[in-house]
Amino acid sequence: MRSIERLLTTHTGSLPRPPEFGDAAVADYDRALCGAVGTVVRLQADAGIDLVSDGEMSKPSYATYVTERTSGFGGEGFKMGTSLSDAIDFPDWGRALVTAMGTVPATQACIGEVTRTDIESVHRDIANLKSAADAAGAVGTFLTAASPGVLTQFLENQYYPSHEAYLEALAEAMRPEYLAIHEAGITLQLDCPDLTPRVGTSNSHTLTWVRGNASWGATSRR
Questions:
Q1: 35, 91, 114, 194: which sits with the fewest CB atoms below 10 Å from its CB?
Q2: What is the spatial order of strands in the sheet that 187-191 belongs to?
Q3: Please, where are the H alpha helices in the chain?
Q4: How far apart are CA 73 and CA 77, in angstroms?
Q5: CB 50 within 8 A of CB 100
Q6: pLDDT tens for residues 69-121?
Q7: Residue 14 domain-assigned?
Q8: What is the CATH number of the domain that holds 44?
């Protein structure tokens, strides 16, 4: 979406979810989700945000939500977040971070063939956002989706013979989600923090590695 009159405002996408969404047994989840999206979109519009999102209300994590929509994941993979170099430069903050992250369980791993099993969830997200945006009079909309590369950072490969093979499988599995958002007339925001090398962590990467991830990210959008 473009404007020749002024700079349009937006944000990164993720917003606080209702506390009850931490309970998998929340009553009438679909209705609660629709209401949460309606509320968060109205708040964005009231604050002057032009391009609004659903705040990722349906996603417990901006990356690991994919395990609920695809096959091939289980077991135990990476233990996240305990080797940030900033913790050395800011030790007081670092101690609190490491303590907090130490309570976070390991993410799932890729233990089998990755295939798309649930396309209905993204269509539900699209419908909820469109309905809420219309009610709030929003200028435009966007939805976030995890890039193949960032998924490799959260969901350890224990199945495919190479990083490239894993990326290719993830790209194929994510393509229907990307296309559904685009074809609905909603701006697709791919979350790709993996494109920036994570210096000083156990997941630091070479420029060659980053270029490879970028190439597969581009392929998945074709």
A1: 91
A2: 51-52, 140-146, 187-191
A3: 29-46, 86-89, 91-101, 120-136, 148-154, 163-183, 207-220
A4: 10
A5: no
A6: 999 999 998 765 544 556 667 777 666 655 655 555 678 999 999 999 999 99
A7: no
A8: 3.20.20.210
